[in-house]
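Posting this for the archive.
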Amino acid sequence: MFDLHVTTGIVASVVCFLLYAVPILTFKRVIRKGSVEEFSCIPYILTLFSNLTYTWYGLPVVSSGWENWTLSGISSIGVLFSSTFIIIYTWFAPRGKKKLIMMMVSALVIIVVSAVLLSSFAMHTHQMRKAFVGSINLVASVLMYGSPLVAVKQVIRTKSVEFMPFYLSLFSFLTSLLWMLYGILGKDPFLTAPSAIGCLMGIIQLIVYCIYSKCKEAPKTNPDIERADVMKVSASQEDTKGQKP
């Protein structure tokens, strides 16, 4: 029998997989250049946080049975992707950034482990566990979807979209849209609310990209400065000729 809720979850998982895979292009560049340049690791750390919490949320311990198996499955894959990206980033990052990344990752791991222990042993119904873990998921998702605003700020400041890949913004929007639909069909506010915020963030990113993707021309040199440089070179050449015997 056709189940629209499950089908939407499967489609959302496929698009979500593409979203997780998009940064491979970014990290190929990082490895090739041996530098993280102006790329930020914050989106990947917050993605790891969100994936860890949603993996736990989708398991039968929290959800009723396997009603959210698609969510748990794709989130666990997201954990592998984001962990790999963070490791690569840390390897090529400057010493100061390495310490900050390790502190942030350690903090989120402590939060997730604490949530797992509390929901497993201190709460005895699925309703209580879903409310508790879902609230943490809500915060994690809002942070994850809001993290690209760091890149948006940089795009506006530099007037360049070099460090905000288009496909990352596109798949982020599509993933949010599909998970929002999945949450609506499953009557799950802890999926619907953060995904709706993700849709809004994705739209903002796409608008900013469209505006600044046209600003790719290198800044033109002031003609007065060029003329002054030419005159200096000419004068220098004349002095050299005058000094010859």
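The CA atoms of residues 22 and 167 lie 7 Å apart. Confidence is low (pLDDT under 50) at residues 217-234.
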